[in-house]
Amino acid sequence: MKTDTFPDLASVCALDNYQIKVTYVTGEERLFDVGPYANGPWYGELIDPEYFARVSIDPQFKDTVSWPHGQDLAPHEVYELGILIDE
């Protein structure tokens, strides 16, 4: 049983300026700025636009945004710090 205060992810896509758009199963969409994380030996690889574009939902942890070499973002941070997109 899920006890977190955020819905499950439906999709994620990379945008310009190291932003990602996450869509939740509820239809809610949020923008999250990955730029502040894209540094250092672990997350620094995200600075490469081609690699950054390979963002996906982690196949094992379905509520986690991740990249192929294991970089990931905490689900609660993406939801709580993401900017709600009003349509």
Q: Could you characterize what this model shows?
A:
The protein is of the alpha+beta class and 87 residues long. 17% of the residues lie in helices and 29% in strands. The chain contains three helices and seven strands, in the order βββααβββαβ. The protein has helices spanning 40-43, 49-52, 75-81, and strands at residues 9-14, 19-24, 29-33, 56-57, 65-66, 72-73, 83-84. The strands form two sheets. The protein has a four-stranded antiparallel sheet with strand order 1-2-3-7, with helices on one face. The longest helix is centred in the C-terminal third of the chain and has 7 residues, at 75-81. It is globular, with a radius of gyration of 12 Å. It starts with 8 loop residues before the first strand and ends with a strand. The model has no long low-confidence stretch (mean pLDDT 93).
Number of helices: 3
Fraction of residues in H or I helices:
10-25%
Contiguous low-pLDDT stretches (5 residues minimum) are: none
Kindly state the mean pLDDT as a whole number?
A: 93
Number of strands: 7
The arrangement of helices and strands along the chain is: EEEHHEEEHE
Choose one word for the global shape: globular
Q: For the CA atoms, what is the radius of gyration? A: 12 Å
In angstroms, what separates the terminal alpha carbons? 30 Å
Strand content range: 25-35%
Main β-sheet description:
4 strands, antiparallel
| Secondary structural class | alpha+beta
Strand order of the largest sheet: 1-2-3-7
